[in-house]
Design brief:
alpha+beta, Threonyl-tRNA Synthetase, Chain A, domain 2, eight-stranded mixed sheet, five-stranded antiparallel sheet
């Protein structure tokens, strides 16, 4: 997919940190040119955690080169060169590029070929500007800091290959990444966060703790939940299931596949076509088309026009919930109808975009769809919002913000009338204001059928994750001609709410693994208690304690190995078991257990019933460590 060129407005709204990083990219290019004067530069923008510059050069840049490049960068910063903006005509810019002077320290024999291409794609009438610092001149719309000396602390981080403009048909360039901050303290804090993130990486912890696996023969992006990981997932489902029953939801089950025509009606096909698995055609129909010499292109055209039906792995649960609603005649007295399902959906993500549990091809949503009258909409939205906030509170995800995703008025991707969108957007804004939560409004972040509230959660090391969502939808009820009989005996159109407090269970669990660093609170822990006899003489007593705990539905195990007690404790700590019960002669004689917790260490001896009562209360309260 080609990379999109930023508009001038997007460039002018850079944050202070983005300006600093953009300027550091220019310093990087200046430094590389001092070492390799013939380097050809493409684009060098600021990105989420730093900056990069794409370049073409005969020398293969490696990490071993970074010290030398950074030394030149430090010289340029110390020189305190001013960033000078120069406005030029198209003719002047093209002339300089042909002379090799753009993205360069001066004229060169070879033209600045990538700058020439970029110039070709700047719309007629758009102002063209250059930025100069020292001898380095680049085609650039800015903005920048005042001087190179304003760049605080920086570090080059990696080098990779990248196609020019992200298009595999273009030349492959080298992409040098770096990051920059206002000062050394912030830079050091960033790298400390990266180190902590490595320790908490859910892919690493998931493997070490035996929670999940991804198998090449099964397929990338498809999660195999191992027994311990399945416990965490089941506990989360139990938790949200209890909350949903309190709120009057009815659980339903739907198939993983449905006729293509269902998704044509909903608009998911062809709108989501690029991120869906290909349709499945009935074998008989496929054989008939093959006999007629139908090509792949003709087959795709038939599917596109709706002249050929098939089946689709469902990308969404909502069309099937709509069909459940539509299966009965509904009265206003029946509304709101609240349906919930742990429904698995399938999306075709590019292999380069897959990442552990947080970006997958098959995932289960704690999906819910509500059908209500317009008068009920505000109360139902408030209840959905409270449900989402409660989920975050219980799991200790207390740092979050809400993002209200609105339609982009300049885009044609949305379905429904402007009046419907206006009503839906007003309803979401009102409920956010009334709930007194911190929120932002962002155009272009709406679903194709309606606006939404997304919960953007910050974990313990400060990273943000998009988790739960609430969406208002006037459009799908229209597309499926949903009705209810109102009090005046006339058919009316219900409003639909889509909501998923967890979002994807896979993604949510991946985030939780990293948030808790694998050390789950007692109620979520796959193994809650491990019994550690000091010697084989105490195994019989250990089995009695194990029976007591298991009878109370505590997830407990008995370490029957011949290891010394220190080794048993270390293993339990490594496997992040919340409680260890050490059993020796004294404990067995007194009918007690010596309690050792994952966090606090030795907590002394108590009776087994007393310990059981204590942890049962912790589990009931869903207490966090």
């Amino acid at each position: 997919m080609s990379e999109q060129r930023k508009t001038l407005d997007e460039r002018y709204t850079m944050t202070e940190l983005e300006r600093l990083r953009h300027s550091c990219a220019h310093v990087l290019a200046s430094a590389i040119l001092r070492i390799w004067p013939q380097a050809q530069f493409a684009a060098g923008p600021p990105v989420e955690n730093g900056f990069y510059y794409d370049l073409e050069i005969d020398h293969r840049i490696s990490l071993d080169d970074f010290e030398r490049i950074e030394a030149e960068m430090k010289k340029i910063v110390k020189e305190n060169q001013p960033f000078e903006k120069i406005e030029v005509s198209r003719e002047q810019a093209f002339a300089m590029a042909r002379e090799g002077r753009l993205g360069a320290l001066g004229p060169r024999e070879q033209p600045s070929k990538f700058k020439l291409d970029i110039l070709e794609h700047i719309p007629e009438g758009e102002a063209i500007s250059l930025y100069r610092n020292g001898d380095f001149t680049d085609l650039c719309a800015g903005p920048h800091v005042m001087r190179t000396g304003n760049i605080g602390a920086f570090k080059l981080t990696s080098v990779a290959s990248a196609y020019y403009k992200g298009d595999a048909n273009n030349p492959q360039l080298q992409r040098v990444y770096g990051t920059a901050f206002k000062n050394r303290t912030e830079l050091d804090a960033y790298f400390a966060q990266l180190e902590e993130a490595k320790k908490r990486d859910h892919r690493k912890l998931g493997r070490e703790l035996g929670l999940f696996q991804i198998d090449e023969q099964v397929g990338q992006g498809l999660i195999l939940w191992k027994p311990k990981g399945a416990v965490i997932r089941q506990q989360l489902q139990n938790f949200i299931g209890q909350e949903l029953r309190k709120h009057g939801y009815s659980e339903v089950f739907t198939p993983h596949i449905a006729k293509l025509d269902l998704f044509r009606t909903s608009g998911h096909y062809p709108y989501y076509r690029e991120s869906q698995f290909p349709p499945l055609i009935e074998p008989e129909a496929l054989r008939h088309l093959a006999d007629e010499g139908c090509s792949c292109a003709q087959l795709a055209n038939l599917l596109e026009k709706g002249e050929l039906d098939g089946y689709l792995l469902k990308p969404m649960n909502c069309p099937m919930h709509i069909k459940i609603y539509a299966s009965e005649l509904r009265s206003y007295r029946d509304l709101p109808v609240r349906l919930s399902e742990f429904g698995t959906v399938y999306r075709w993500e590019q292999s380069g975009e897959l990442g552990g549990m947080t970006r997958v091809r098959g995932f289960t949503q704690d999906d819910g769809h509500l059908f209500c009258t317009e008068e009920q909409l505000s109360a139902e939205l408030r209840q959905c919002l409270e449900l989402g906030l409660n989920v975050l509170r219980v799991l200790g995800l207390n740092q979050f913000r809400a993002r209200i995703g609105l339609r982009d008025p300049d885009s044609s991707k949305y379905v429904g009338t402007p009046a419907q969108w206006d009503k839906a957007e007003v309803a979401l804004k009102q409920i956010a204001v009334q709930s007194k939560i911190s929120f932002t409004e962002e155009e272009g972040e709406a679903a194709f059928y309606g606006p939404k509230i997304d919960f953007i959660v910050k974990d313990v090391i400060g990273r943000e994750w998009q988790l739960g969502t609430i969406q208002v939808d006037y459009n799908l009820p229209e597309r499926f001609d949903l009705t209810y009989i109102d009090s005046d005996n006339t058919p009316k159109r219900p409003v639909m709410i889509h909501r998923a407090p967890f979002g994807s269970l896979e993604r949510f669990c991946g985030v939780l693994i990293e948030h808790f660093a694998g050390a789950f609170p007692l109620w979520l822990a796959p193994e809650q208690v491990r019994i550690l006899p000091i010697s084989d003489k105490h195994l019989t007593y250990g089995r009695q304690i194990l029976s007591l705990l298991k009878a109370a539905n505590i997830r407990a195990s008995l370490d029957e190995s011949s290891d010394k007690i220190g080794a048993k404790i270390r293993l339990a700590q490594l496997e992040k078991v919340p409680y260890m019960l050490v059993l020796g002669a004294r404990e067995e004689q007194a009918g007690e257990v010596a309690v050792r917790s994952r966090l606090r260490g030795d907590e002394g001896a108590v009776s087994a019933p007393h310990f059981l009562e204590r942890i049962q209360q912790e589990i009931t309260d869903r207490k966090l460590d």
